[in-house]
Amino acid sequence: MYLIYLDESWNTGKDFMNARQPIHFISGILVSEDCIDPICKKLKSLEKMFSPKKIPKFEFHWSDMALWKGIFAGFNEELRIDTFLKILTIIEKSDLLFISQWIDKAKLFEKYKTPLHPHNLAFMYLVEKIDDFLVKSDSRWLLIMDNNEDRKQRVINDFSSFKDKETYFGYWKKKITNVIDSVYYTESYNSPLMQLADVIWYLHAYLMVSKHKWTYNKTQINKRIIFERLEKILKKKTYYSNIKPR
User: Which domain of life is it from (predicted)?
Assistant: First the structure.
């Protein structure tokens, strides 16, 4: 069995022309159940770099790590870089695959008279690809998503419909068959694997959208090392990554 952890960002709803967030992302990881505990233990061991005692609601959250906010505010930049590199090592050495669906909001608005919400559209495309992969490997899967009160019930309803009937679109409609039960939501601070999905999503999105334009200073070389390692890892670990509509 596989567990699928999905996270999303740049959700501006139906504000399709938002220039600051032109792409809506849902990305995540497919992880074999045998790998869950080893990955969790490795991530939890990294927490001790920041505090020997357990911190309530501690999480490796990309925005706090990248901008050095919250729990991470009191630590130097070298530790931040080292943390990203250690997380990449965990990803590199683990039996997992990366998946990502991007929705170009402006193109979606131009193409359809009444466009679907980008979140629901991205979710549908990803579910189709995940199920294709797991049908071929004769595996079952359970879906876990980062909590999103805005779209939660609609996603659950859509998922149920995909299982009972089909996905949305004409010739490409498909019934989702190998999934177990429903969509489960969790707060990311309760799930090390969701945090891993969040960090790899952030680095991937920043790499693709910002073209390496992080705010560089004395550690420019180290930051570039992060993205160069990520590119190599994603070449091996990416099952599916796509942007729609074309």
Answer: Bacteria
Q: Does domain 2-36+96-218+228-244 have CATH number 3.30.420?
A: yes
**Residue 170, pLDDT score:** 62
Amino acid (one-letter) located at 44: K
* pLDDT at residue 8, as a whole number: 84
Which residue matches tokens 């549908």? 124
Of 96-100, 144-148, 173-177, the range with the highest mean pLDDT is 96-100
What count of residues does the chain have? 246
Q: Backbone phi, then psi, for 100, in 5-degree steps? A: -155, 135
Cβ atoms of 7 and 146 closer than 8 Å: yes
Q: Report the C-alpha gap between 84 and 80 in whole angstroms.
A: 6
Q: How many CB atoms lie within 10 A of CB 16?
A: 18
Q: What are phi and psi of 4, to 5 degrees?
A: -110, 125
